[in-house]
Every structure is written in C-alpha cells, then in structure tokens.
Amino acid sequence: MLATVIILIVILIVAWFAIDLGVGKKELMQKERTFPMRQASLKLFTDGTKFYNDLFKSIEQAKHSIHISFYIVKNDEVSKKFVDLLCEKANQQVDVRLLVDRIGSIKLNRKMRKHLLACGVKFSFSRRLKFPYLFYTINARNHRKMTIIDQSIGYIGGFNIGQEYLGLDPTLGTWKDYHLKVTGEAVNDLQTQFLRDWSSSMNDEEQHEEVIDRQIKDPSMQIVQFRSTEGVSLEDHFLHIINEAKNELCIGTPYFIPTESLMAAILKARKRGVTVYILIPMRADHPLVRDAAFSYLPALVEAGCQIHQFYYGFYHGKVMIADERICDVGTANFDKRSLFLNGEINCFIFDPVFIKHVKETFHTFLHDCPLLSLSDIKKRTWFDKFKQGVATFISPLL
C-alpha cells in the first residue's frame, strides 16, 4: 500500500512539473526577436583578464549610461571591484543599471545589493518567480550577458563576473570563453534587448524607452545579426548553421546535450563529407552535465567526428562555425536548457575574415586537447554509466 501511494505521489509531481512547464512557457514566455542585419566592428576575447581589463576601462570612461545584464555576479573580490566601479560611476551621475538573474546570481547578497542602491545604481533581478508557474519560472532563466556603454560600445558572450573567469578557481583552473566587443550600429540592438529585459523585470513590458538608431555605414565593418531567443527558435538557428557547412563544422560548448534533430543534422553533415570538430571540457562545473553528453558521443565518434576534451582548465565558450560562411558567438549553450528554456542572445557573423580569426582561435584550443575515442568511452565505470542514465533522464533541465 505504501509503495502504491509513493508511486502515485511521484506520478502527480511529474505531471505537475510537466503542466507547469508547458502552460507556464505558453503564458509567460517573452517574445523572441531577430534583429536586422547590421554593420559592426568586432573584437574577440577568450581570456578573462583581457576581457575584464577592457570592460572595466570602458565602464570607467562612460559619460552617460552603463547598462549591464549578467547571469552571474558573485560575492568575491572580483565582484566587489565590479560593484565598486558601478557605484563610482553612479556617483558621477551616469545612468547605471545592473540586471542579474535571480538564480544565477544567488550569491550576490543583500549587503551588496543595498550598497548598489545606496550609490544610485538601478538594480533589478530578472525572471522573478511567479505563482502558479513556479517550476517554469525557476527554470526559465535570463542567461543573456550584455553590456552597453553610452549606447556606442557593446559586449556579448559567455563571461560572467567572478574569480573563476580569471582562472582563480583551483578546481576549474584556466578558464577559456568567447566574448565579443561590438561597436557600430549593431549596438542599437543590444540596447533594445537590454531595455526589453529591464522593462520586463519591472513588470512593465509596455514601457519602451527610446533607442537612438545610429546608422553607421563603413565598408570595413563586419555584417552581423543578433538573435534573441526564449526557447523556441534557437534549434532552427543551430540547424541552419550545421546545414550550411560544406567542408568544416566547428562546435564549441561547455554542455553538449543536443536534440534528435541536431544529432541527425551533424551525422548528415559527416555523410556529405564535412569534417566535424566538437570541443567540450574535460572537467565539469555542474553535476551530471558532462555525463549527459556521453549518451550522444559514441554515435558521433563512430561517424568520424573529432571530439576533443579541453584539458588545461574549463572550456566555457559557445561557438559554432560553418566553413567561413557563418559563425555564431553568443550566450547559448548546445544543450536543451538553452534551446527550450533560457533567454539567450547570439551574434551571427557573416564576415569571412573575422570568421577565419574565430576559427583559428578555436583550432588553437584544440591543439594538445585529447581526442576522445571509443575505447575511452568504453572505459567509463559503472558509476559513470549510472550517472549518464540519470543525466539522460533529466536532460531537458540540464
């Protein structure tokens, strides 16, 4: 009798979660947006120290506005330096706004938040928990990482604010990521997306602040397009990149948990002769996500995909490259949480010269990173395989 009751309770909980996710997404999901093709000048950062130095310098030089959205801001020395810098600029009468994800930035404590507000920084959590869709609102996070300075300089990519991004976490070691610095007319779209997210956090989605549409035409700039997703169209965007590849496809991601359609597209690319490189970390920064990948890797290895495991620390970059035709650098991981739950923003790049630069950086990371073989996969312990089974079962939430 007790076993029957327990089974019924489990069934009810699973059913509630499923209904909560489905209905919550339908009722609360923000609109997705594909922005126009824009001109931009791009600079790529893969090293946290260089990125922070550039970002902090831009913040220090801001004259009018600093609008920042991060998934994670922690409570460590790096984060405190960041907070103090924002306070300094707010004291100079600069319009400073900081939007962070409630779950991702759970370590940003009340004391630091009070300090920000006391200095005049406008602060808000995004994606507030909403009854009755608690399970959906806990899981559908704002994973976007954007900074817009004076509406003329933008940043977008994988770095957050914390000491591990400087390689100071002894467990994770050297941290490699992808983050873009953007100037030119494309910054308009980052500003627009930030203000949409900001208004949503204020529970005032009808409020729209004016964004000055600066048209900057310069043939030396790259052609880019920002795509803001909310768990609907990202899979189609990824499929488009994979299907565009004629000779070489590069995928870099910290979490490799694809859908059946994405797996089929990668295997189809191999059948038409495309060389496929996949770069994933050897270490894990979250439980089970690395184990989930091993449900998909054997078929890819058997098909001839070259899967490298980043050995020298933690690889957190989110990048896809199809030949020198199209490249994606953004905030979305190659996993089901980014595909179907999180708010993400990605930069699609169409400039062959810059794409070649990104590809060369990608191949630099591949150098000396161990190539995964079928024998490596077969050597996994029974406990590893058990974790893999659990991870596969809950993969929609990983």
UniProtKB/TrEMBL annotation:
Indicate the segments forming the PLD phosphodiesterase domain, all copies: 138-165, 311-338
Cell compartments where the protein resides: Cell membrane
Where exactly are the transmembrane stretches of this chain?
Answer: 6-23
Which processes are annotated in GO (biological process)?
Answer: cardiolipin biosynthetic process
Q: Name one GO cellular component term.
A: plasma membrane
Q: In terms of one coarse class, where is the protein primarily found? A: membrane
What's a Pfam family this protein contains? PLDc_2
Alphabetically list the UniProt keywords.
Answer: Cell membrane, Lipid biosynthesis, Lipid metabolism, Membrane, Phospholipid biosynthesis, Phospholipid metabolism, Repeat, Transferase, Transmembrane, Transmembrane helix
Top-level taxon: Bacteria
Query: Which PROSITE patterns does this UniProt record tie to the protein?
Result: PLD
The main enzyme category here is: transferase
Task: Give the Enzyme Commission number.
Answer: 2.7.8.-
A GO molecular function held by the record: cardiolipin synthase activity
**Which NCBIfam families has this protein been placed in?**
bac_cardiolipin (TIGR04265)
> PANTHER family in the record, alphabetically?
CARDIOLIPIN SYNTHASE, MINOR CARDIOLIPIN SYNTHASE CLSB
Q: What is this protein called?
A: Cardiolipin synthase
> Native species of this protein?
Priestia veravalensis
